[in-house]
């Protein structure tokens, strides 16, 4: 076997160690699964019914053009089907986007501590990553744009709202960033949490604008992370280019049917939004009761400032894991003074409320 020299040079890392791997290593299941920004509230009952129906037809490949889902998304968003590509979650689409735009020697800009799967793809295609620091727990649009100008980057990544901090910029700030992009530089605007964000965080959708591609997903508010369905919205020339590289049978029949039904179920979406808002408040209250500082969030998690350095936050996280609460934390300083706690059910919140003070005591509060 001879790996390519690019593959040979890659670090043997994965962006995330899954909770299942952690459970195997601990030889114990988690009692509360609050670490992967999933929606514990689950998919819409109507989506479950549609997936059950589609399961009987799973002997057939899914439609490689994802025609019905693409058309439904286009109608829902008021754009043409040519402006929509669906794929295996935002993660899969980020891989395709990077494959389209990045090759060895090309510069790409992101924030230090932002979503690691993007970085994983850039490194995987041989690109050179440039990282700028967060400013006040927000990704910094000005710094991203000026670094892109400095290094001649063709691609910038911004997640709005942001993971792992839960922070967001308003639409005007994002639009200013788009207007300030260097010539020929594309903004990948990751809107994984758009369905959970206040409307003023989401700039109007303008698919005629060649400077930006937007990524969205059924994994968060729609509660379908296990299906792997995401979509990208943008100019038809860029969206059309995905057909050159995408896995045309990547989205199975069950996934296409489940996503279609979820999209049509506005009632469930409203219900999930309400439950997420309630749970954000519960996490913030639990954090405050324990003497910690919850950060404002426009997502389905709350990032909690543990008030000291990364070692302390890692110890708190360890204490929660020891008490069967699965949570994660940002990977780099100064963001790693925080832990990130996903929204959950009332039972999840009770488990968190019981575990957090003891985890803090263990950490040497
Ligand atoms: C910013 C961001 N982008 C993308 C994803 C992954 O989305 P998907 O499940 O559609 O691959 C996540 C999941 O946590 C995320 O936080």
Verbal overview:
This protein folds into two domains: 123 residues, Aspartate Aminotransferase, domain 1, CATH 3.90.1150.10; 220 residues, Type I PLP-dependent aspartate aminotransferase-like (Major domain) (Aspartate Aminotransferase, domain 2, 3-Layer(aba) Sandwich), CATH 3.40.640. The radius of gyration is 20 Å and the shape is globular. The chain contains 13 helices and twelve strands. With 365 residues, it is an alpha/beta fold. The model has no long low-confidence stretch (mean pLDDT 97). It starts with a helix and ends with a helix. Helix content is 41%, strand content 14%. Strand 5, helix 8 and strand 6 form a beta-alpha-beta unit. The site of pyridoxal-5'-phosphate has 13 residues, from helix 5.
Q: Under the CATH scheme, which architecture of the largest domain would be assigned?
A: 3-Layer(aba) Sandwich
* Proportion of residues in helical segments: 40-55%
Structural class by secondary-structure content: alpha/beta
What is the assigned CATH homologous superfamily of the largest domain? Type I PLP-dependent aspartate aminotransferase-like (Major domain)
* Shape descriptor: globular
Q: Care to count the β-strands?
A: 12
- Domains, number: 2
Residue-averaged pLDDT: 97
């Amino acid at each position: 076997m001879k790996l390519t020299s690019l593959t040979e040079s890659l670090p043997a890392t994965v962006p995330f160690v899954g909770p299942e791997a952690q459970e195997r290593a601990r030889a114990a299941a988690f009692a509360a699964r609050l670490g992967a920004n999933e929606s514990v509230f689950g998919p819409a009952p109507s989506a479950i019914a549609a997936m059950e129906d589609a399961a009987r037809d799973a002997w057939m490949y899914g439609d490689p053009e994802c025609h019905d889902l693409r058309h439904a998304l286009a109608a829902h968003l008021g754009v043409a089907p040519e402006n929509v590509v669906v794929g295996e979650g935002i993660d899969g689409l980020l891989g395709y986007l990077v494959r389209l735009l990045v090759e060895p020697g090309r510069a790409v800009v992101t924030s230090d501590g932002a979503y690691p799967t993007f970085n994983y793809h850039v490194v995987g295609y041989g690109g050179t990553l440039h990282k700028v620091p967060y400013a006040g727990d927000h990704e910094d649009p000005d710094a991203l744009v000026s670094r892109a100008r400095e290094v001649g980057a063709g691609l910038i990544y911004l997640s709005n709202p942001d993971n792992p901090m839960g922070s967001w910029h308003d639409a005007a700030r994002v639009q200013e960033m788009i207007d300030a992009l260097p010539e020929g530089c594309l903004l990948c605007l990751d809107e994984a949490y758009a369905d959970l964000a206040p409307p003023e965080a989401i700039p109007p959708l303008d698919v005629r604008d060649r400077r930006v591609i937007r990524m969205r997903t059924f994994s968060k508010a729609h509660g379908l992370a296990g299906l792997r369905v995401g979509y990208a919205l943008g100019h038809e020339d860029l969206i059309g280019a995905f057909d050159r590289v995408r896995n045309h049978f990547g989205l199975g029949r069950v996934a296409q049917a489940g996503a279609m039904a979820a999209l049509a179920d506005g009632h469930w979406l409203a219900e999930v939004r309400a439950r997420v808002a309630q749970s954000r408040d519960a996490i913030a209250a639990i954090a405050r009761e324990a003497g910690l500082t919850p950060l404002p969030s426009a997502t389905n998690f709350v990032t909690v400032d543990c008030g000291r350095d990364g070692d302390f936050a890692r110890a708190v996280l360890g204490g929660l894991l020891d008490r069967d609460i699965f949570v994660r934390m940002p990977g780099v300083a100064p963001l790693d003074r925080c832990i990130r706690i996903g929204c959950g059910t009332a039972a999840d919140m009770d488990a968190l409320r019981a575990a957090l003070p003891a985890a803090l005591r263990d950490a040497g509060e």
